[in-house]
Amino acid sequence: MAKELSSPIASRCSGADTFDQYVRRYHRQAYNIAYRLAGNHSDAEDITQEAFIRAFRFFDRYNRALPFENWLYRIISNVFVDEIRRRPKAKLQSLDQPVNVRSTSGEVNLEIPDNTTNPERMSLESAIDEPLQRALNALPPDFRQAVILADIEGMSYEEIAESMGCSLGTVRSRLHRGRKMMRNRLTAQSYVPAGRAGGSA
Known about the structure:
Blueprint (H helix, E strand, L loop, with lengths): L1 H37 L2 H17 L10 H19 L12 E5 L2 E5 L8 H8 L3 H9 L2 H12 L4 H8 L3 H21 L13
Helix pairs in contact: 1-2, 1-3, 2-3, 3-7, 5-8, 6-8, 7-8
């Protein structure tokens, strides 16, 4: 019996170790996207942590032939949409504690990094100036996701379609309309990109 259990146990422990590597590698990017979607640190933290929890829960469904970040971005998008839908009723529950996943071999502790006192968080949040972030926040959620993935994360239309679970035509439409809405809003505010104030010599 011990021999029959050893293989599944080893597989689950190995999977947890692999996932922990993904968390460490992609947490910063995930938080960055979540912050752009949510527009504030508190919701970005909640969205990021919930996304990694879901990713761990369904890690066995991840197709290793595809980029992990694309799969993760789709989960982040789903968490964000869920948050938007339930916002009038309740705020996303805070998940400040590590996620404990218990197997027959004991407890595997999945640590989600905390950005609260991380100096890198400030650089992430200041990477786009306030008028741009407000313009992003004003976009409908679907347009906002498309613009962020294309213009901030540099993803291709195909990658965005995969991450958002929609067609290429839908991605193009959302990007066109989202960019136009942002351009109109920023033009109306006489927006000057950070670092260009004062004009050229």
